[in-house]
């Protein structure tokens, strides 16, 4: 059973702080890693994708991947109330494979 | 822009009815997926398809079937709806390449009464 785990929420941070979201996965052959944001009642939307070890930055968002530890994280700098949502970690094994999602972490950014 | 369109945003059906959920994508993607999402359980894969007329069971296929007669359309069928199939259903599509993300439709909130 391929599993993706995320830190249990809800996670609350004050506005302007850094929010740190963590994800671990069980299948070592996983190749692609994604972070989705999902607002209540809406469908998931992609924030970041990462494929190689190290950091990848996009605006206020930084994804970090460590394949040896089977760990991927998402940092949100200068958190805003509009960042309040559920964040889903997803893993794809490879070409033509399906996506395995974690249970999600609910983030609340307090004004 | 990739567009994945689900036929209904909200649906109410009676127990025992046969229910069809339709999904259409306009980006010529090979892969299409059906997930259901329930509080505390995350997204669970029901079925996916990697080509026309091809399908693979996901984690929870019982009580469901799928049809993919054309590349752009992937249908989820509830053979005999039951109350435990009340859920949010999400369709997604992606190209075959491993490094590409899944694009989601707007979701269908199905209630079985």
Topology:
The complex is a heterodimer of chains A (111) and B (113).
Chain A: E1 4-6, E2 11-14, E3 19-25, E4 32-38, E5 45-50, E6 54-58, E7 61-66, E8 71-76, E9 85-92, E10 99-101, E11 105-110
Chain B: E1 4-6, E2 10-13, E3 19-25, E4 31-38, E5 42-51, E6 54-57, E7 64-70, E8 73-78, E9 87-94, E10 103-104, E11 108-112
Parallel strand pairs in B: 2-11
Antiparallel strand pairs in B: 1-3, 3-8, 4-5, 4-9, 5-6, 7-8, 9-10, 9-11
Radius of gyration of chain A: 13 Å
| Category by helix and strand content of chain A | mainly beta
Number of helices of chain A: 0
What is the residue-mean pLDDT of chain A, rounded to a whole number? 92
Low-confidence stretches of chain B: none
As a percent range, the share of helical residues of chain B equals under 10%
Biggest sheet architecture of chain A: 6 strands, mixed
Q: Write down the oligomeric state.
A: heterodimer
**DSSP strand tally of chain B:** 11
Average pLDDT figure of chain B: 94
Q: Number of DSSP strands of chain A?
A: 11
Rg of chain B, rounded, reads 13 Å
How much of the residues of chain A is beta strand, in percent?
A: over 45%
Shape of chain B: globular
Number of helices of chain B: 0
Provide the β-strand percentage band of chain B: over 45%
Our measurement of the CA-to-CA distance between the termini of chain B, rounded to an integer number of angstroms, reads 36 Å
> Which ranges of chain A are low-confidence, i.e. pLDDT below 50, for 5 or more consecutive residues?
none
**CA-to-CA gap between the ends of chain A?**
40 Å
Shape of chain A: globular
């Amino acid at each position: 059973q391929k599993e993706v785990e995320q830190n249990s929420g809800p996670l609350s941070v004050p506005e302007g702080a850094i929010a740190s979201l963590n994800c671990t996965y069980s299948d070592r052959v996983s190749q692609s890693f994604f972070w989705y944001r999902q607002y209540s009642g809406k469908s998931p939307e992609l924030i970041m994708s990462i494929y190689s070890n190290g950091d990848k930055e996009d605006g206020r968002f930084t994804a970090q991947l460590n394949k040896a530890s089977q760990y991927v994280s998402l940092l949100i700098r200068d958190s805003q109330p509009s960042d309040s949502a559920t964040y889903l970690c997803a893993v794809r094994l490879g070409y033509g494979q399906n996506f395995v999602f974690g249970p999600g972490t609910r983030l609340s950014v307090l004004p | 822009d990739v567009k994945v369109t689900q036929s209904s945003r909200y649906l109410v059906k009676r127990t025992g009815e046969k229910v069809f959920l339709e999904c259409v994508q306009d980006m010529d993607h090979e892969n299409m997926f059906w997930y259901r999402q329930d509080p505390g359980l995350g997204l669970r894969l029901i079925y996916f398809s990697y080509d026309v007329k091809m399908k693979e069971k996901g984690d929870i296929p019982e009580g469901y079937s799928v049809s993919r007669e054309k590349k752009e359309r992937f249908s989820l069928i509830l053979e005999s709806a039951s109350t435990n199939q009340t859920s949010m259903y999400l369709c997604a599509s992606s190209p075959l390449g491993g490094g590409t993300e899944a694009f989601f439709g707007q979701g269908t909130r199905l209630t079985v009464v």
